[in-house]
Amino acid sequence: MKELIRNILQRFGYDIVKTGVPYIAKSKKPGVVKVGKFPIRMPGNSLQLINYQLYPELNIQLGRLAKAIFKKYPGMSVIDVGANVGDTIAVLKSAIDVPVIAVEGDDICYEFLTENSRQFRDISIIKSYLGEKSQHINVNLENSGWNTTIIPGENGNSQIDFRTLDEVILSAGFADRQIKLLKVDVEGFDTIVLRGSTDIIEKHKPVLFFEYNRKNMKVINENGLFTILSFAGSGYDKIVFFDHKGNLVLAADMQNAEIITYMHNYISSEKNLLAYYDICIFHKDDSEIAVDFITEEKKYL
What we know:
Elements: H1 2-11, E1 31-35, E2 38-42, H2 47-54, H3 60-72, E3 76-81, H4 87-95, E4 100-104, H5 107-116, E5 123-127, E6 129-130, E7 135-142, E8 149-152, E9 158-163, H6 165-171, E10 178-184, H7 190-195, H8 198-204, E11 207-212, H9 214-219, H10 225-230, E12 236-242, E13 248-253, H11 257-268, E14 277-283, H12 287-298
Helix pairs in contact: 3-4, 3-12
């Protein structure tokens, strides 16, 4: 039957192609999915409910990264910006039991995050939206409650107070923690948040791990490339690109602006075949961690 349907469609220039993005019926009922070693409760309309079922090793490279860093810095803490409902905390805790400072602004995600975090130890939760500077602006909110996407605009349907990560960490009393991994996943605001984290980055030189979602970035007129390239001037010397399923794509020197620009241009193109990158950047002081991590990730290709 499938072949018959395909033959009919092909007569009109169409075909059936598996995209890897499943159809998810909307639900008002929360669900529970196992993430790493832990059960995580999520809103019923969360894409991650089905993603973690289909791809149980989703985001697992983040756990391997934390474990690699921990070998050198056993007293480390992790900052998880865009902690959502706590799924990435589960990924981290499944690999290594490190203290995590979780930052989440969405009301619904924050409630689930608080609930899910009760099964972990050494978790500090901060409710805040983050930006490049502190400001109060009008925005439109899309996918609220599971994958909140913020689109600034004068005619926005909501008003949000933004703070910088530097301010949030300082005011919460965490500035003296040994922050060695900074993870950011905030639907297009990632490089904006990193520009509001300059004090943390200069002081702690953490490994940076962030989503690079050009589709969302274009909507808010965020370039991102210049922010990435600027880290070379702060002593960062290795960059690693993963696809949206956590597979290693490329590792390069930060001084190689040509390759980094090419990767930016590819993911910015309407012809690209990836949803987004996860990008990892290492400071030169931790070059040995970068080498070990990249070597290990090659084994999973």
